[in-house]
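Thread: Newbie trying to understand structure tokens

Hi all, I'm a second-year student working on a class project, and my supervisor (Dr. K.) asked me to get a predicted structure for one chain before our next meeting. I've only ever worked with sequences, so writing a 3D structure as a token string is new to me. If someone could post the tokens and maybe explain what I'm looking at, I'd be very grateful. Here's the chain:
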Amino acid sequence: MSAPGSPAMPGGETCPLCGAAVRSGDERCPDCNMTLAGVGGRPAPFDRRALWGWAGGLLAVYLVVLAIVVAAR
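---
Reply by user tm_fold:
Sure, no problem. This is what the structure looks like when written as tokens:
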């Protein structure tokens, strides 16, 4: 692993977890394997549409389970 605060590669930055030099196109740190999504201008792992999709899916599962419980009474 690189020492924290070590100089980054040209055109890159450092990993926020271990401080290793990472290139601007890397999706994960080569030393600690931390995901770099949302760091240094990279896209976030989930956008607003994906979060609403997950929320809708969880709500649908909840409503189905609730309907089964009500029907079983």
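A couple of things are worth pointing out once you decode it. The first helix runs from residue 48 to 72. The CA atoms of residues 15 and 61 lie 38 Å apart. Feel free to ask follow-ups in this thread.
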